């Protein structure tokens, strides 16, 4: 098991994620950033790929609405605000100017790091879920084969994955199944707060372990939450992410 290292998030390409996983810009028809008053690019909240009640009874409508509309939206808003202020600060002086308010710049860069991680992690999370009982909610394809090869069975993987999460995520964080794009090997990992998965790892499955993801329904019973969310994992999406991690012969 391992913790992911702290990251510098200003370069999106560092995340080891495919282009379709990246946050949508305001003008997603051309992928050209839309000039705002400060001419900064604007990130937007991606819509859920299902209705707010679609994951009932495993994840309640109330949690989904609050999680998406309030929490994820806050990451987006805070990210845009910090980027706006950073751009204004940097526009006031050349980058080598010692009079530049560097303490505020560093503070804002930390804010960008945290909120951009939150935006990307949640964007991946929503796409990684699906209503229970759908064809997508069953382990499948190359990923299923690779998990069985690596861990012996899907159940054995689940036990290892959840043990890692329960032992490693002490406060707020995420549990991940990742694939190394160089070795093509699968591994379980955890990240603190809103740290994202960095290359050479690629996120395949991600589970939000912040209390806002489960507390209203499961209180402090993380195991009950983990058992519930297993029913709504989108294995089709996970398999597609895994295939992108494999050598070209599998694509
Ligand atoms: Fe969350």
TrEMBL record:
Keyword Mitochondrion: yes
EC numbers, comma separated: 1.15.1.1
Cofactor(s) the protein needs: Mn(2+)
Reactions that this protein is recorded to catalyse: 2 superoxide + 2 H(+) = H2O2 + O2
Residue intervals of the Manganese/iron superoxide dismutase N-terminal domain: 42-129
Localization per record: Mitochondrion matrix
Keyword match Ion transport: no
Domain of life: Eukaryota
Residues given in the record as Mn(2+) binding sites: 67, 122, 208, 212
GO CC aspect terms: mitochondrial matrix
GO MF, one annotated term: superoxide dismutase activity
Manganese/iron superoxide dismutase C-terminal domain ranges (all copies): 139-241
Residues annotated as signal peptide: 1-18
Keywords: Manganese, Metal-binding, Mitochondrion, Oxidoreductase, Signal, Transit peptide
Chief place where the protein resides: mitochondrion
Alphabetical list of Pfam families matching this protein: Sod_Fe_C, Sod_Fe_N
Family the UniProt entry places it in: Belongs to the iron/manganese superoxide dismutase family.
Task performed by this protein: Destroys radicals which are normally produced within the cells and which are toxic to biological systems. Destroys superoxide anion radicals which are normally produced within the cells and which are toxic to biological systems.
Oligomeric and partner information: Homotetramer.
Entries under PANTHER family matching the protein: SUPEROXIDE DISMUTASE, SUPEROXIDE DISMUTASE 2
Protein name: Superoxide dismutase
Species assigned in the record: Orbilia brochopaga
């Amino acid at each position: 098991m391992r913790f992911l290292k702290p990251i510098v998030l200003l370069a999106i390409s560092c995340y080891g994620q495919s282009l379709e996983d990246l946050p949508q810009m305001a003008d997603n028809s051309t992928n050209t950033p839309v000039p705002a008053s400060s001419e900064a690019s604007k990130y937007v909240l991606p819509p859920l790929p299902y209705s707010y009640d679609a994951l009932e009874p495993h994840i309640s409508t109330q949690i989904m609405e609050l999680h998406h509309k309030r929490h994820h939206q806050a990451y987006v808003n805070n990210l845009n605000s910090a980027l706006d202020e950073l751009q204004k600060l940097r526009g006031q002086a050349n980058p080598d100017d010692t009079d530049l308010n560097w303490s505020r710049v560093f503070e804002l860069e930390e804010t960008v790091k945290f909120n951009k991680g939150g935006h990307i992690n949640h964007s991946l999370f929503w796409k990684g879920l699906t209503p229970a009982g759908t064809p997508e909610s069953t382990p499948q394809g190359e990923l299923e084969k690779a998990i069985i090869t690596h861990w012996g069975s899907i159940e054995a993987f689940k036990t290892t994955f959840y043990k890692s999460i329960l032992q490693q995520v002490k406060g707020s964080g995420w549990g991940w199944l990742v694939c190394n794009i160089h070795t093509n090997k699968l591994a379980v990992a955890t990240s603190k707060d809103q740290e994202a998965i960095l290359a050479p790892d690629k996120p395949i499955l991600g589970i939000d372990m912040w209390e806002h993801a489960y507390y209203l329904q499961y209180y402090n019973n993380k195991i009950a939450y983990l058992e519930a969310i297993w029913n709504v994992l989108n294995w089709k999406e996970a398999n597609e992410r895994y295939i992108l991690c494999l050598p070209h012969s599998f694509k």
